[in-house]
Design brief:
The protein is mainly β. It has strands spanning 2-11, 16-19, 25-30, 33-38, 43-49, 54-55, 61-66, 69-74, 79-83, 96-98, 104-110, 116-122, 128-133, 150-153, 158-164, 171-180, 183-191, 200-205, 211-216, 220-225, 235-240, 257-264, 267-274, 277-284, 289-295, 300-301, 317-318, 321-326, 329-337.
Amino acid sequence: MLTLKLVAQIKGKPDSMGLSDDGHWLVMTYGDEWHLIDAFTGQEIGRVPDFSGFISPDGRSFALLKNGTLKVTRLDGSQIEKTYPYPTGKYPGSMVCFTADSQRLWVTLWDEHGAGKLALLDAGTLEEIDSVPVPVAEGDDEITWVNPEMSLHMPTDTLALQHVYSDFRGLLGVFFFNHQEKQIKQLPVYIAPDSALSFMSETAFSASGQLFAGIVGGREVWVWQMNNMDHDELLNVCDIDNDEENDRAYWIRGGDRLAGLTFLSEQLIVLVERKSRYELRVVDIINDSVVSRYQLPHDFTLMDYSLRVQTLVDNSLRGQTLVGIQGDDVVIYRLSVAKETI
């Protein structure tokens, strides 16, 4: 059974907000002021002027890669910047991600020839430690990344990097990387789904790292099982769509929109919007069924996307944390799943 505990209710609707990858840190903006909140306790940790991008796992640093300039801002107000000479048009997004220990950064960069690379940087100096060429998916005629997605599995420090067509025809691949000492290693697991599959959003790993999931088009959930890192491919174990004729799709019918997903241990949690109401569902991946539901308060809503800062992590459901708006207040919930007793 899925249960929610209200951690905090914070007065005042912010201009934007977002969660860190692990659901531990919440950042809210009020005008030019950025508030960092410990989402596990609801306590304010500090305020950061000119907040930049993505939050480190330790909650002490923030990183942004934009228009060829990489900037890291720390909670104490100190900053470090590095500008690269070739911010080509091939890369419009802000792709940057801290490693699990918050000491290094994954970034995608371009050279004078327009070739892409995935680089590992020292977060304190922004000096490059190692780099590898941007991987090319099967059937890809053009090395192009558009608003790509990075997801990190913290216990193993495994990075998932998504590769899409430049004209949004569909997903080409998801590649996985790790770093050993000072070298980047590309893991021999790689997703190359059907070309009809469009870009995945809200991607997440399960706690063990053996499941990887994402939302497609707001109406499909795709989950892959990573039996071990030595396999050549990922096994597609769950393909659930919103087709009224598909008996396996009953749990997201009726024009529902999938607004987010996360894992609690190995259990998939999906946030569904149903006619302006939100519902959380625990999904049995193997049997493609819902084992628990939780109706959120009628006045609960997510932030309006038009108010979001594009470089801010904009998932409102991560790890054990759900954050949203009730009335004019920010509410933080802690999620848990307990076995039902008879």
